[in-house]
Amino acid sequence: MTDQPAPETSTAPRLVVLDVNETLSDLSPLRQAFSDVGLEPHETEAWFAGVLRDGFALTVLGDNPAFADLAADGVRARVRAAHPDRGEQTVDEAADRVLSTFTSLAPHPDVVEGLRALAGLGCRIVTLSNGSAGVARALLGETGAGPVIEDYLSVERAGVWKPAAAAYRYALEQTGVEARHAMLVAVHPWDVEGARRAGLRTTWVNRKDASYPSFLTPPELDVASLTDLAARFG
Amino acid sequence: MTDQPAPETSTAPRLVVLDVNETLSDLSPLRQAFSDVGLEPHETEAWFAGVLRDGFALTVLGDNPAFADLAADGVRARVRAAHPDRGEQTVDEAADRVLSTFTSLAPHPDVVEGLRALAGLGCRIVTLSNGSAGVARALLGETGAGPVIEDYLSVERAGVWKPAAAAYRYALEQTGVEARHAMLVAVHPWDVEGARRAGLRTTWVNRKDASYPSFLTPPELDVASLTDLAARFG
Question: How many domains does chain A have?
Answer without folding.
Answer: 2
